[in-house]
Design brief:
With about 450 residues, the chain is α+β, with helices and mostly antiparallel strands. The chain is built from ten helices and 18 strands. It starts with a strand and ends in a 6-residue tail after the last helix. The relative contact order is 0.10.
Length: about 450
């Protein structure tokens, strides 16, 4: 009996995935353990492994397609078996490849298959959204297509669920666009400049000068590198955070002598069989959790006219990966011992780096507070950006020696750990933010109490 392979559902918040590469083709032999295809969500990559052996009877999608979760992707079975009724979106024929199939799947039609009426509708939709000033949600596949053709997809009227802009909308917008030179497209991508209805070139072709940038500004010794999907998501989130909140940062130092002593003690204990390599970052995160217990207003989300206060602490931790910055969450971190927290932080960090993190854990709505540690890079002070709707984020800096009054007029240099708390002033007053970061410092200075 033929076996259908579906697009897995990677977390409750994931509605669709991008098929990055189909590893098999129709007619290939498959054994258990073979990689069938790779796919990705906004921030994580995965591979689908064959669970049965047989022959690839049918493939329903191509590389780059956005596929709803739980949708049939391919069929494995014995040669000659029927795949009738297994094609997604109600397809009737496994060999259909024309206009009917693409329309059935909701894929964009070729330019030659679109009517003048559809192009007119697209132009009307573009003008309606421009007037309304509202941006539309954009599907990942539509985003890729829009970026390729320098279309500002957010301003299109979406025909997908809940007004979402899908690939078909972008294709129609492309057909309605005036002819544009490659350099003009590049400038639009890089600067976000609007596309005029008519250009100064032949037959109304839009040239570089028509989008407000002189071509001389682009020299031959430069290379334009497109942003990855993940980089675009990060850029959008960071811009939205700064645009939609009142952020302020307080900087404060914590005496790190006990912290360094605790770290040294752990290293020594591991030689005698201590099971957990507790890092400085683990100690700091544990101290943050103790401080958050004293300041519930910091362990919260700002909702505009109300606050969501959490009874448990769900700690987000910034992780540097090859694909970019990820912020996974350790749920119910306040219920963990120091060893347990250390294990959980390492587990989510490694999952991010190897592409196995559960996508739901990357949502900023899942965490109630975030820690970003740049101390290992030698950063002495920085301003972290809040992961909205959280109300604050703590930046952890490197340890540097600073003078301190040791009493009786004697001064000495002691190690200090820099702390940078960015908070949303709409939700938190400066005095409360100061008391909180001071409490974090106190917990760090008393960290040997917990080991």
């Amino acid at each position: 009996m033929a076996t259908v392979v579906i697009m897995p559902k990677q977390g409750q918040s994931v509605e669709s995935c991008i098929l990055t590469e189909m590893k098999k083709k129709k007619g290939d032999t498959v054994v258990v353990g073979d990689v069938l295809f790779s796919y990705e969500t906004d921030k994580a990559s995965f591979e689908e492994i064959a669970q049965v052996r047989g022959t690839v009877l049918e493939l329903f999608f191509l590389d780059g397609d956005e596929i709803p979760v739980l949708t049939n992707v391919l069929v494995i079975g014995n040669p000659g078996e029927s795949t009738e009724g297994l094609r997604p979106f109600g397809g009737k024929s496994s060999s259909a490849t024309g206009k009917e199939t693409r329309a059935m799947k909701g894929w964009p039609l070729a330019k030659t298959e679109r009517s003048e009426e559809s192009l007119t509708t697209t132009k009307q939709s573009l003008s309606i959204n421009d007037v309304s000033g509202k941006q539309s949600p954009v599907s990942p596949r539509a985003r890729i297509l829009a970026d390729k053709h320098a279309v500002q997809a957010e301003w299109l009227v979406g025909t997908g669920p809940h007004g979402r802009v899908i690939a078909r909308d972008v294709q129609m917008a492309i057909a309605a666009m005036p002819k544009t030179t490659p350099l003009a497209k590049t400038i639009i991508k890089e600067t976000g400049a609007p596309l005029p209805e008519n250009g100064s070139g032949l037959a109304g072709t839009v040239k570089a000068v028509d989008v407000g940038v002189k071509s001389q500004a682009f020299t031959s010794d430069s290379v334009i590198k497109p942003l990855t999907n993940m980089r675009k998501m990060i850029a959008k989130a960071m811009h939205a955070s700064l645009l939609n909140s009142a952020q302020l940062t307080h900087h404060l130092g914590a005496d790190a002598r006990n912290l360094l002593y605790a770290r040294k003690s752990i290293k020594k204990a591991m030689l005698d069989g201590y099971p957990t390599d507790i890092t400085i970052n683990d100690f700091v995160c544990f101290a943050v959790i103790q401080a958050l217990k004293e300041f519930p207003n910091i362990n919260a989300h700002f909702l505009g006219d109300s606050m969501r206060l959490f009874s448990n602490i769900h700690l987000g931790i910034a992780v540097d990966t090859e694909r970019g910055l990820m912020v996974p969450t350790v749920r119910n971190a306040d219920k963990l011992s120091l060893q347990g927290l250390s294990h959980q932080l390492k587990e989510v960090s490694n999952a991010c780096k190897n592409g196995g993190i559960v996508p739901d854990l990357l949502s900023p709505e899942v965490a109630s507070f975030t820690v970003s540690n740049l101390g290992a890079y030698g950063v002495e002070m920085f301003t972290p950006v809040i992961n909205l709707p959280q109300v604050a984020i703590l930046g952890v800096n490197t340890i540097i020696p600073r003078p301190k009054d040791l009493g009786d007029g004697v001064y000495g240099f002691i190690p200090y750990l820099g702390l940078s708390l960015t908070y949303d002033h709409r939700a938190i007053d400066g005095s409360e933010a100061t008391r909180f970061v001071k409490q974090v410092a106190i917990e760090i200075e008393d960290i040997d109490f917990y080991i």
